TrEMBL record:
Highest taxon, organism lineage: Bacteria
Record-linked CDD domains: HAD_sEH-N_like
Record-linked PANTHER family: ALPHA-D-GLUCOSE 1-PHOSPHATE PHOSPHATASE, FLAVIN MONONUCLEOTIDE HYDROLASE 1, CHLOROPLATIC
Gene3D superfamilies noted in UniProt: HAD superfamily/HAD-like
NCBIfam families in the cross-refs: HAD-SF-IA-v1, HAD-SF-IA-v3
Protein's name in the database: HAD family phosphatase
Length: 199
């Protein structure tokens, strides 16, 4: 029997796919430095996050909005570093899948909603060696699930939507990708990614 044809590209989300959720102690360190609670869904950390992810705010502007007072570049840089640390815990099962796909010669790319400071922090991280292309919302000026994000990726990769397998943990992002004809897979953290990919 002939082996199934490999897609042109595997496109991976970062948060909750390549990385795991922040640990309680990570949030505690960030909240201690900020002086306010941040982890709950209605906090100022999340309220202004899309604008930060889209590059509409620089670090000083973002963290000043989060803290409700003007902050300097020193504190903003400290908070950015703590924020990157809490999103740096890697999903070892996903890394195994990336290693396998990479060894098979698959073309891999990342598409993540991520502020420029964090993208820069991760630019030399060991996991990046698997990826031929990395797309971050702050560099595109749009966040998922905006269709323009996916069109930008398709244009840059010079590929058809049907040639891309996209893996993301958010229903809205998966739906938006499918609307454009991308083969999108909704990843549930803790489940078998190989099975989700049909490998």
């Amino acid at each position: 029997m002939e082996a199934p044809q490999q897609p042109g590209w595997y496109l991976f989300d970062y948060g909750m796919v390549i990385s795991t959720a922040p640990e309680a102690e990570d949030w505690e360190a960030l909240e201690e430095a900020a002086g306010i609670p941040l982890r709950h869904s209605g906090s100022t950390y999340w309220m202004h996050r899309l604008d930060y992810d889209e590059g509409k705010l620089d670090p000083v502007q973002y963290w000043s909005l989060v803290l409700g007072r003007e902050v300097g570049i020193g504190l903003a840089s400290e908070l950015d570093s703590l924020d990157a640390i809490q999103w740096s815990h890697l999903n070892l099962d996903t890394l195994d899948v990336l290693e396998m796909l990479h060894s098979r010669g698959a073309r891999l790319a990342v598409l993540s909603n991520m502020p420029a400071a964090m993208a820069e922090e991760f630019s030399t991280a060991p996991w990046t060696k698997y990826f031929a292309e990395m797309f971050f919302s702050s560099g595109i000026g749009l966040t998922k699930p905006e269709p323009g994000v996916f069109r930008h990726v398709l244009d840059t990769l010079a590929t058809d939507p049907a040639e891309v397998v996209f893996i993301d943990d958010q229903h809205a992002n998966v739906h938006a990708a499918r609307t454009l004809g991308i083969n999108a897979i909704h990843h549930t953290p803790g489940t078998d990614l190989l099975r989700e990919l049909g490998l």
